[in-house]
Amino acid sequence: MPVDTSAPRSLALPGSKSITARALFLAAAADGVTTLVRPLRSDDTEGFAEGLTRLGYRIGRTPETWQVDGRPQGPAVTEADVYCRDGATTARFLPTLAAAGHGTYRFDASEQMRRRPLAPLSRALRDLGVDLRHEEAEGHHPLTVRAAGVEGGEVTLDAGQSSQYLTALLLLGPLTRRGLRIRVTDLVSVPYVEITIAMMRAFGVEVAREGDTYVVPPGGYRATTYAVEPDASTASYFFAAAAITPGAAVTVPGLGTGALQGDLAFVDVLRRMGAEVTVGADATTVRGTGELRGLTVNMRDISDTMPTLAAIAPFASGPVRIEDVANTRVKECDRLEACAENLRRLGVRVSTGPDRIDIHPGTAPSPTTEITTYGDHRIVMSFAVTGLRVPGISFDDPGCVRKTFPGFHEAFAELGRGIGG
Ligand SMILES: O=C(O)C1=C[C@@H](OP(=O)(O)O)[C@@H](O)[C@H](O)C1
Ligand SMILES: C=C(OP(=O)(O)O)C(=O)O
């Protein structure tokens, strides 16, 4: 790719999926009207907003904002059927919100979301007295909540497969009559819990920690105006593109030292590999230096960026080992195997273990390679980065990027044309 090494290319990226989902929950539960500024508009967050609408919440829209009429007392309808699409935040957070209301609420989801685990959350909700029934397989969607408010108290949770169970219970805490004490026996994706706690604070609730127990007071949320950061997981594709292109530089404004999202730490991985990284007060820049070293990295905290790293790993000068990412097997697809299979198709030597992937340098692609996406947005966006260096890559389902970034292909093509300036 021709590269101009002058000014970095500045990219205004869409809002964070995780922050938008939490903001929608908090706004719906708060007392008063909340304005979300620059929420993410994508299949996941539209699905979340549609779910809230089904539950009777009112959401007004302008081009830049969503206004949510909060209802501390819970859903405005006593019966609803909600389709959560492919979004785990929707499928796990909304039944929890509904539990605090009064009515009968059914939740279903996509085929893949039906396969993804939910049992530790439904068990915890039942332990708190919630009448939650799975219609088909135990611990999976579809499910029905017969809600009569939640008293609160103590509960034990295993969040070793997904932190979203803990986030759902934390968000529920202030809506219970006595508050919640959540004892956590295992936890992945810790930075997502930190996002939850920081956002609850912005809506007037302080979560305390006592060792392995999270303590959430009762009392409800306060409406506010909330500006959504750009999505740091989305930014990883653009940062990775710069890192593999000598002299190219990408700046993402709105993601700096004060950013809430743990996935911004992906730039630390790129820095360890040899990229030049600057994290400023309100922007982050990655510049490709021509050097890309192999490394061993634990991605337990930032596993949504595992496919991004896997997709550029063959361009490193030594092997890349990504460890402690077992739960990437229960995301939009089995991401460890999807990455391995597609890399092998590109002639790369790869092996996987229960919770790791090893990738060796070098590609030997055929002139055209179709990537099997399994409907997973991150497989598409990651291998699009590989495509900057390997010609002839196509996707069986390029449109699945709609889950978090409907405009990805246009934005990425533009970057490809002008990276570096
Ligand atoms: O809480 C959230 O918004 C998320 C938490 C993470 O999931 P797990 O906790 O299941 O790893 C992440 O992978 C997902 O994309 C979003
Ligand atoms: C795993 C993801 O999404 P979710 O769990 O929210 O469906 C993701 O966006 O990579």
UniProtKB/TrEMBL annotation:
Subcellular location(s) of the protein: Cytoplasm
Any Gene Ontology CC annotation: cytoplasm
Enzyme Commission number: 2.5.1.19
Pathway annotation: Metabolic intermediate biosynthesis; chorismate biosynthesis; chorismate from D-erythrose 4-phosphate and phosphoenolpyruvate: step 6/7
Enzyme active site: 304
SUPFAM superfamilies the record matches: EPT/RTPC-like (SSF55205)
Reactions it catalyzes: 3-phosphoshikimate + phosphoenolpyruvate = 5-O-(1-carboxyvinyl)-3-phosphoshikimate + phosphate
GO molecular function terms listed in the Swiss-Prot or TrEMBL record: 3-phosphoshikimate 1-carboxyvinyltransferase activity
Chief place of localization: cytoplasm
Domain Enolpyruvate transferase: 11-411
Chain positions recorded as 3-phosphoshikimate binding sites: 17-18, 22, 162-164, 304, 327, 331
Enzyme class, first EC level, given as a word: transferase
GO biological process, alphabetically ordered: amino acid biosynthetic process; aromatic amino acid family biosynthetic process; chorismate biosynthetic process
Alphabetical list of InterPro entries matching this protein: Enolpyruvate_Tfrase_dom, Enolpyruvate_Tfrase_sf, EPSP_synthase, EPSP_synthase_CS, RNA3'P_cycl/enolpyr_Trfase_a/b
Keywords recorded for this protein, A-Z: Amino-acid biosynthesis, Aromatic amino acid biosynthesis, Cytoplasm, Transferase
Binding site for phosphoenolpyruvate: 17, 116, 164, 335, 378, 403
Function: Catalyzes the transfer of the enolpyruvyl moiety of phosphoenolpyruvate (PEP) to the 5-hydroxyl of shikimate-3-phosphate (S3P) to produce enolpyruvyl shikimate-3-phosphate and inorganic phosphate.
Subunit and partners: Monomer.
UniProt record similarity statement: Belongs to the EPSP synthase family.
Protein name: 3-phosphoshikimate 1-carboxyvinyltransferase
Native organism: Streptomyces griseorubiginosus
Gene of this entry: aroA
